[in-house]
Amino acid sequence: MTDTETGAPLDEWTEHLEELRKRIIRVLVVFLLVVAAAFVCSERVAAFLMRPVAALGIQLYAFAPTERFMAHLHISAAMGIVVTLPYFLLQTGLFVWPALRGNEKRYALAALLADPILFLTGAGAVYQFFPPPIPLFLLAFGSG
């Protein structure tokens, strides 16, 4: 039996969709494991993220019983996204790789090499330069 529009066998489509499903499940499992591990370490991550704010002499308070817990859940989810993103991109690349032509594969490899360097450079710059002005802006904005 073939697809009426493309003439491709339906078995190829189902195999393709099955591979996509397996890759999505792998990424979700890794994401959930990273979120669970990040929740265990969320106190240390929160302390690391709070260093620039603490250097300004600003102290944060929790006004609701669940606020601190939710903050740790948000930190864990953000860590899960950041840490799982390279694995997600790898799985996406492995899924798409067989369909790429020779010149497209060269561009994809160049992007794979440049992406981690650019990401780490950007994350370091944001952590270094943005935290001091942001809390001051938010405090000034909130008091008005």
Question: In brief, what are we looking at here?
Answer:
This protein has 144 residues and is mainly α. The protein has helices at 10-40, 42-55, 67-96, 102-129, 133-143. The longest helix is centred in the N-terminal third of the chain and has 31 residues, at 10-40.
Descriptive notes:
The chain is mostly helical. The protein is 79% helix and 0% strand. It contains five helices and no strands. The chain has helices at 10-40, 42-55, 67-96, 102-129, 133-143. α1 packs antiparallel against α3 and α2 (42-55) crosses α3 (67-96). The chain is elongated and about 65 Å long. The model has no long low-confidence stretch (mean pLDDT 85).
Keywords:
144 residues; mainly alpha; 5 helices; elongated
First CA to last CA: what distance? 69 Å
Estimated share of beta-strand residues: under 5%
Which structural class fits the helix and strand makeup? mainly alpha
* Oligomeric organization of the protein chains: single chain
- Counted beta strands: 0
Low-confidence stretches: none
Rounded radius of gyration (Å): 22 Å
Q: State the helical fraction.
A: over 70%
Number of helices: 5
Mean pLDDT: 85
- Order of SSEs, N→C? HHHHH
The biggest sheet amounts to: none
Coarse shape:
elongated
Summarize the SSE layout with pairings.
Layout: H1 10-40, H2 42-55, H3 67-96, H4 102-129, H5 133-143
Helix pairs in contact: 1-3, 2-3
